Amino acid sequence: MSESRIRENATAPAAGSAPGSQAPLGERVYLAVLDAVRSGELKPGDRVREQDIAERLGVSRTPVREALGRLLGKGLLEQSGGRGLVVRTLAAGEVVDLYVMREIIEGAAARLAAQHASAPELAALADVHARFAASRDERELARLNRQFHDSIHRAARNPYLDAAARELQDTIALLTVTTFSVAGRPEEAVGEHAAILDAIAARDADRAEQLARAHIRTALRVRLGLVESAAPR
C-alpha cells in the first residue's frame, strides 16, 4: 500500500466536512483504508495488519483498531485463520447480489431525481458527464462515474436512499478492477449516462428509472466478464 497516499487520506478532512474541520481520527483512518481498497493498493486477499497501518499513518493503534473493526463489521475485511485480517474477496454470486441491489437503488434515484432535481443540480450533473466523456484514464473514469451517480443520489432528495447508496458503495470498493478497463465500455457508458441525464432533465421519471436500471445491468454483464477472466483455469 502506498504510504504517502494512505497518510494523505488519513490526515485530510472527511468528505462533506466543513472547511477547517476534522473528522474523528478513527473515521479518517477508516476512509484512508477504504480508499486504499478502492484504488487497488489493497487488493482482495491482502493481509491488513493493525501495527503496519498505525506506523504508516503515524497514529496510535486505538483508532486503527476502531477502523478495522468497522471494516470487519461491514464485511469488507474477514478473518483468515492464522493470517489474521485480509481484504475480503467477493464470490461471483455475491457480485450478482450486489448489482441487483445497485440496480434497484440507481433506478429509484434516477426516478426521484427526475422529479426533484433543481436547475443547478442538473447543470452540475451535466458538467460531471462532460468531464467523464472527455476522460481517457480508467481510474479517473471510475472516480467521475461515482461522482455522476452521487450527484443523482443527492438530486433525489431522499436521505434514506442516499444512505443505502453509500453503504453499497463501500462494498463496491472490493471490486478493485474497474469495468472501464474493458475495451469499449467507457464509450458505452458515455451514451448511457447521456440518456439518463436527458431523461432526468426532461422530468421523465419512468424513462430515467428504466435507463438507470439498464445501465447497471450492462455494467453487471461487463463485471461478470472480468470475474470470469480472473478465475483460475
How are the strands ordered across the major sheet? 1-2
Structural class: mainly alpha
Mean pLDDT: 89
Beta strand %? under 5%
Unreliable spans: 1-5, 11-21
Record field, number of beta strands: 2
**What's the story with the biggest beta sheet?**
2 strands, antiparallel
Characterize the quaternary organization of these chains: single chain
Per the CATH scheme, the topology name of the largest domain is Four Helix Bundle (Hemerythrin (Met), subunit A)
| Total number of domains | 2
CATH class descriptor name of the largest domain: Mainly Alpha
Share in helix: 55-70%
Bulk shape: globular
What is the ordering of alpha helices and beta strands? HHHHEEHHHHHH
CATH architecture of the largest domain: Up-down Bundle
Rg over CA atoms:
18 Å
Could you characterize what this model shows?
The protein has 233 residues and is mostly helical. Helices cover 69% and strands 3% of the residues. It is built from 10 helices and 2 strands, in the order H-H-H-H-E-E-H-H-H-H-H-H. It has a two-stranded antiparallel sheet. Strand 1 (77-79) and strand 2 form a beta hairpin. Helix 5 runs antiparallel to helix 8 (159-172), helix 5 packs parallel to helix 9 and helix 6 packs antiparallel against helix 9 (185-201).
Annotation keywords:
10 helices, 2 strands, 233 residues, 69% helix, disordered N terminus, mainly alpha, Arc Repressor Mutant, subunit A, single chain, two-stranded antiparallel sheet, Four Helix Bundle (Hemerythrin (Met), subunit A)
Give a concise summary.
Helices cover 69% and strands 3% of the residues.
